[in-house]
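Throughout this review, each integer encodes one residue's backbone shape. One record appears below.

===
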Amino acid sequence: MILASTTPLVTSPVLIFFIVLVIILLSPVVLNRFKIPHIIGLIVAGVVIGPHGLNVLARDMSFELFGQVGILYIMFLAGIEIDMFNLKRNLKKGLVFGLLSFLFPMIVGTLASVYILHMNWVTSILLASMYASHTLISYPIVARFGLTKSPAVLIAVVGTIISVIGALLVLAGAVNVHHTGEFSWGDLLRLFLELALYCVVILYTYPRITRWFFKNYSDNVTQYIFVMAMVFLASWFAQIIELEAVLGAFFAGLVLNRYVPNASPLMNRIEFVGNALFIPYFLIGVGMMIDVKVISNVNTLYVAGNMIVVALIGKWVAAWIAQKIYGMKGVARRMMFGLTTAHTAVALAVVTIGYNMIMPDGSRMMDETILNGTVLMILITCAIAPIVTARAASKMRIEMLTDEGATEANASKRETKILIPVANPITVQSLTELALMLRNPRRKTDIYAIHVRNDNSAASRTIGRNALDIAVKSASSVDVEITPIERYDINTVAGLLNAIEERDITDVIIGMHRKATVIDSFFGAKIEQLLKATNQMVVMTRCFIPVNTVTRIVVAVPPMAQFETGFSRWVRAIGNLTREVGCRVIFCCHPDTQPLIRGVLHRGRYDIRHEYRDVERWEDFVLLSNRILEDDLFVVVSARESSVSHNDDMADVPGFLQKYFSRNNLIVLYPEQFGQAEPMNTFVDPMSSDIHSVPSPLWFKLHGAYRKLVQLKKSIFKREPRKKIDL
């Protein structure tokens, strides 16, 4: 492979960038008509305009720089989009597949090089390390289909890291043998120790730095720059210990995964910039390295054919064995094969090192025939991988939608509509982000932001419109539409109630009231009126830190909460929040409630880490006061007076929250409750009074009285010490 020495047709930086943007623009538009993955179009376009094609553009430093950023971006996205809970569940499978994907191509490749291509053992092992490694070049296809949490994809990603690490270790060993004439276990042990130290340093420092930064700086652009700086820092550290930078980018993605929710504006910006610019640049740069003229050389075709067959068979057999071992479907095998077929970064590194190594007789360890054969192998594997991955992803997505449809059919059929009352522009963004995390992204959800005013002054209008604009902008950054509502009414509660009835709202998410005076109640008069006047689910929030930085979610659930109408709805909301944040959730509830919570999470396919603590008496949640940390989110599931799970102890909840949890991140949730609402007007202010729910049925009253007698009996005849709740 000899680069063209002629001057390219275009040298102007502005025109170069314009041509690249046109290629990025037209590739998906044109190729989607023929159902061909646009990744192939970008690679082919690079071949055509590159120095080995029409020589329109030269593969200058801009393509080197953007190409390196692109491959790092692919690996970073693979790490940051992984579902960590599912990754832990499939980690052993991924390790097994990684060993298969590394060992089988290594063995077959070494034997084929020795006995077919007649190379020496060191060169054969070095060449086989090229077959063992691969690049996730077709991962953007998986991301577009929304399959990043699929077990087959997770197994392939873990397998990629194992195979790349193995290939790099073999590469280091082969180079050492070439230079010293013998294999050194000391160098290999040193590399392992450096890798272990590298992982420990990243795991210890990155979470602490990231949590501190996100707590103090909320600007999305600043956060994006910070994340990318951390990624490239990890990649540079990986290069220092003689590993590939892609491993550092992937590991940084895994560590930062916890702090970048999928439904956040930050994640949207990360995906947008990568998929719109850096990754296409990398793919075009790969095409520019390919010289199609090597096909005319018979010897090169023979070597390239051997390399292509070995590379494809090695990866396919590894995927086939893994599929059979774990009883997976055929589409999972095709997905794993498609993701692990392409060879680019490590293959180029291996062949370049081999090409630059001079043997004692003056010849190169890998001559131009191997170099050109490698380029042809890259062309073929980069063309096959997107096609196989796209077909497998299409079928897998159809199966997933079918399963989700069956799941949603068993769930509540009522459409979710969320209302966000906004008054203070400072707190609007946090409320909007919480609403986006509580919703189910797999179901249609209508979100409304409302500002209610009772005067027509210019200041009131300006504040309201600014708050609504912030809500709309925050949602649009993650491609979610919010309908703004600016309403004039006699008071805030009346305006909210009218909007709830007009829009058929199911969930209300509102900021928690801040006490203005000593005699002011904890929730405030407006929220108390709203709770009594509506039967829909009301979520009150007060977070001192961004939600994506919480370490745990602790949920206090009252006894008999499973009998409430809105039980499944609030459990699913907590499940959505936990899945987006990526932390664990601990339900402190009665043993009778635990199986039903598990059932809702299982039926909704919430792959989250959920734990349970036995709390038989509602008043025992005060014992959690010294167990809730500053980085935890404490969720209190309360109940209205006429509901089944309500008890007299709940009247003291606001006081307990003010006394014991005044510095904690808090959400107070009132589940949905069916019933008719009757207005009760006063002579003081007909519209400021509350609408009270109808009295509870007689059965509820008798059952509540029975429960109180049982508790009184226990307290008199059997004094049990309060159990310590261990979180």
Remarks:
- The domain at 512-717 is CATH 3.40.50 (Rossmann fold).
- The chain has two domains: 13-402, 512-717.
- The longest strand covers residues 445-453.
